[in-house]
Amino acid sequence: MAQTEVPEKANVLEISPEQLSELEHVLGDYQGKPGMLIQALHAAQNLIGYLPPPVLRTVAKVLDISLSEVYGVVTFYHFFSMKPRGKHVIQVCLGTACYVRGGQEILTQLQKELSIDVGEVTEDGLYSLEVMRCAGACGLAPVVRIDSDVHKRVNPSHITNILKNYQ
Amino acid sequence: TAPQHFQPLSPLAQEKRVVLRNSGYIDPTNIDDYIARDGYIALGNVLSGSPEEAIQIVKNSGLLGRGGAGYPTGLKWEYTLKAQGDEKYIVCNADEGEPGTFKDRLILEGDPHSILEAMAIAGYAVGAHQGYIYVRGEYPESIRHLEIAISQALDYGLLGDNILNSGFSFRIGIRKGAGAYICGEETALLESMEGGRGEPRIKPPYPPQKGLWGKPTVINNVETLANIPPIFLNGPEWFKNIGTPTCPGTKVFTLTGNVINLGLIEVPMGITLRELVYQAGGGIKNGRGLKLVQTGGPSGGTMTPDLLDVPMAFDTLPRYQSALGSGALTVIDDTHCIVDVVKNFCEFFLHESCGKCTPCRIGNKRIVEMLERISWGKGTENDIEKLQFLGEHIKRTSFCGLGQAAPNPLLRCLDYFREEFESHVIEKQCPLN
Ligand SMILES: NC(=O)C1=CN([C@@H]2O[C@H](COP(=O)(O)OP(=O)(O)OC[C@H]3O[C@@H](n4cnc5c(N)ncnc54)[C@H](O)[C@@H]3O)[C@@H](O)[C@H]2O)C=CC1
Ligand SMILES: Cc1cc2nc3c(=O)[nH]c(=O)nc-3n(C[C@H](O)[C@H](O)[C@H](O)COP(=O)(O)O)c2cc1C
Ligand code: SF4
Ligand code: FES
């Protein structure tokens, strides 16, 4: 997933007024069109990086949908995150085709290397670690996705080198 | 150039490219390349006949839906044509989320115009003027190629108003999924397209009666649609002569897991797993033995070594408690512990359960817990009985296809690999370590 402006520190929750007004502008494209909530949330997350309550309130207001409906949709889809994510999002595929070619060992190696668990963000806010269930690149398993790059035939010993490209 | 997600398989004499006829041979971002290979000719022909004639051709071809369930495409179109509605829709299901499957992706990226042409044909046949392609969010390249293709087709007057001066108008929009496997289930997909949580609806009514926004809707898989232009170009008889009499045409298989060559291949229906794994795939990696092949991903079928010579088709595999599904073939070698493999399948369903109904939401949780216990050497024989009972219960009582299919690998493996499960609970450790 595309990550744009990301907070310096993973636990900073403020959204600036400028960001909010830019958000309203972007959401304008989806105003008054039925069924566009998910597409609007994609756009919002692309812009802000994640979907904290002020963003959800803005989406609800612009699209004229109840906040509870917006919340229900955001929590349903794995793509959407209400928590800040790292500057780089690492997703290890544990779909069966990757699993039987060593996906789990890669995950274990990453957990060690980053000292975080699945679903967490490193202290410096640089990386979040997630698990995915098939990137559609199973022919080159095991795969790890970092942001929008898919790394193929990854070996646990490659991890350190791969991470050097994401600072 | 075609996207290369794999190393090539060894060629098979049977190989036949119908849906992959263009992928890798044309520049998918150039409509002229597609047209040079007879693109949009089928659409032109269809527009000069009647909708009923178009549907008859699809019915005569015997084409069965390639999304996994194998429902006759012609029938689906006919129901939609006959259904009452001021508006109708064509939806292409490009949510391909089944682990081990990447066939739709290759078609979307390598030959996007074939999908647009097929959707326009379907639109004319059933009386729809709007189509949507629901693409999984994980496929940005597919989305990009589709967007380019749509704008080129609009420029050429092959989409939009009054296509080829026929008076028929048809437009196509793209909707991006947001990482929920359940949204591949057609009614969950409709909920998601309407902007909500992707929770399945009760069937019937099926989408041909009540689909998007409650209007009659055709939902077809990418590979199903990719068959449509060649069927119209070459005639239904040509199509019927490929594959088996009851399951005509080709199938794209994606070969993954512990085989020597990984990749995808298009062959006539009726091929055997032995040919696919040992010839195209070059056999099991590192000289190991075959434990099982999961067909169609976790929600498809489990093929054990005794089934290597069964012809692969929608109607044959269910006789062996298996299923063709999406055509994914995940080969698992004998170094893998069966409890661990089954646990991976069940964790997948636990993760992807939408939570609407209790048997699936809670049942899969309990199954994963029991499997964890067994793999840690803390299971009892009673757990095996409970797994069996719970699996059958979930299968019978779940609301949608996800829950109904979820226990299949477990139940099949409990049967075939009974001893391996038992030695885990009796010796309190894995016989393979
Ligand atoms: N390609 C992929 O990534 C995945 C594929 N699947 C496959 O999906 C399959 C299950 O799909 P479902 O849609 O739940 O199966 P289903 O049997 O309910 O329906 C199959 C198709 O036939 C149509 N249909 C059935 N009866 C009909 C009737 N009386 N009138 C009109 N239309 C009718 C349905 O609308 C649907 O399009 C499984 O076989 C599985 O292999 C599952 C997960 C992922
Ligand atoms: C949990 C679940 C996930 C599914 N995912 C997909 C999918 O990703 N792509 C697809 O084409 N069909 C998927 N299906 C099958 C669809 O519900 C439907 O049968 C299919 O899109 C019909 O198209 P067809 O007749 O061309 O095969 C899924 C079914 C279930 C139960
Ligand atoms: S069976 Fe599972 S996925 Fe289907 S409706 Fe029930 S909870 Fe949702
Ligand atoms: S299972 Fe990992 S990419 Fe498909």
TrEMBL record, chain A:
InterPro entries on file: NADP_DH_HndA-like (IPR028431), NuoE-like (IPR002023), NuoE_dom (IPR042128), NuoE_N (IPR041921), Thioredoxin-like_sf (IPR036249)
Coiled-coil residue windows: none
Gene Ontology molecular function, alphabetical: 2 iron, 2 sulfur cluster binding; hydrogen dehydrogenase (NADP+) activity; metal ion binding
Listed EC numbers: 1.12.1.3
Co-factor(s): [2Fe-2S] cluster
Alphabetical keyword list: 2Fe-2S, Iron, Iron-sulfur, Metal-binding, Oxidoreductase
Highest taxon of the lineage: Bacteria
Positions bound to [2Fe-2S] cluster: 93, 98, 134, 138
SUPFAM superfamilies, alphabetized: Thioredoxin-like
Pfam families, A to Z: 2Fe-2S_thioredx
Co-factor note (free text): Binds 1 [2Fe-2S] cluster.
Family that this chain belongs to: Belongs to the complex I 24 kDa subunit family.
Protein name: NADP-reducing hydrogenase subunit HndA
Organism listed in the record: Atribacter laminatus
